[in-house]
Amino acid sequence: MSTKEKLLALVKASPEIYSGEKLAQALEVSRTAVWKAIRELEKAGYRFEHTPSGYRYLPSDVLAANEIAPGLPADLAIEIKPSSESTMKDAKLAFAAGESTPRLLIAETQNAGHGRFGRSFFSPKGQGIYMTLLLAPNKTFGELPQYTLLAAVAVCRAIEALAGEYCEIKWVNDIYLKGKKIVGILSEATSNFESGTITSVSIGMGINFAIPQASFPAELQVKATSLFPDSEPKITRNQLIQKIWEEFFALEAALPDMGYLEEYRKRSFVLGKQVSFTLQKQHYQGIAQAITDEGQLVVATESGPITLHSGEISLESIE
Questions:
Q1: Beta bridge partners of 50
Q2: Per-10-residue mean pLDDT for the chain, 319 residues long?
Q3: 67: number of Cβ within 10 Å
Q4: CB 174 within 8 A of CB 185
């Protein structure tokens, strides 16, 4: 461990004030080295109270693999970048390069993040969570779970457990809090044509964590919010990331138990409501009746029931 890593571990262990001399003795370095380590940590986003008698560590929300890893699979590789074009793209490049899986790729900000149908995702630095889990299942499509649905349930469970907020799901991949979107999920897969197996699955998430409501672009003000829009976060991003994937891997380990699908249905705010959508250039309206075991949405229309598949349409309105 470097001096700054040792110093950080020491000051985080207790809320007391540490003098420069005490830190220097504990770390067996000079006081100048202590001062430099504090400066480096502050540049990285960590917060310290500077007092006449020394330094006190203040709660800091800096993404750190060692705070995310506990409770997750031992073979999970975690990569954190200060910025990325897109963590989904990072996952594709990692798979192409033969990197180990499972692999969690996280970025402080994205400059080209996107959701379904190529829609851009608002990704302010330090105020959101932008990540992609890369898996290499090597199974047929029929053998795989509905990863988008499973991930949506994992996110809802994690938010409820840590923040005490009940979230709902807009079919198929958006998480809503109090009527506004806070999470977008995107799953993509690659397959081997000859063997018919799915060689990789990338599950991307964009989470509005602590974005002030006034900071959203004008067109998103009425549609989106964050978990902590106007108050000090009760938890850290590291804690939420860890809990999401802990829930995800627990649900995956429980397969073929489909309990996650029933919970997905219970959290849906689409079922039983009138929806409108466009399919093959034709406009439809109807009542969302059911979500199948394959994750499809069944809508009762004047023309009869229509089954919508993930990725082929976007719901235009819900009443």
A1: 55
A2: 92 93 96 95 92 92 93 97 93 96 95 53 79 96 92 98 96 94 94 89 96 86 91 92 98 93 95 89 92 94 91 67
A3: 16
A4: yes
Residue 44: other Cβ atoms inside 10 A: 14
pLDDT digit string, tens, across residues 11-54:
998 889 999 999 999 999 999 999 999 999 998 889 999 999 99
Q: What is the DSSP string of 48-62?
A: EEEETTEEEEE----
Taking the C-alpha atoms of residue 142 and residue 16, their distance in angstroms, rounded to an integer, is 56
70, two tokens: 């506990």
pLDDT in the model for residue 125 = 77
∠ Cα 157 160 163 (to 5°): 135
C-beta neighbour count of 21 within 10 angstroms: 11
SS3 6: helix
| pTM of this structure | 0.87
Render pLDDT for 200-227 as a digit per residue (tens, 0 to 9): 999 999 999 999 988 888 888 888 999 9
Q: At what angle do helices 31-43 and 3-12 cross, to 10 degrees?
A: 80
Instruction: Give, as one character, the DSSP assignment of residue 227.
Output: S
SS3 259: helix
According to DSSP, residue 211 is labeled -
Could you tell me if 141 and 191 are in contact, meaning their C-beta atoms sit under 8 angstroms apart? yes
306: exposed, middle or buried (C-beta count within 10 Å: 0-12, 13-18, 19+)?
middle
Query: How many residues does the structure list for the chain?
Result: 319
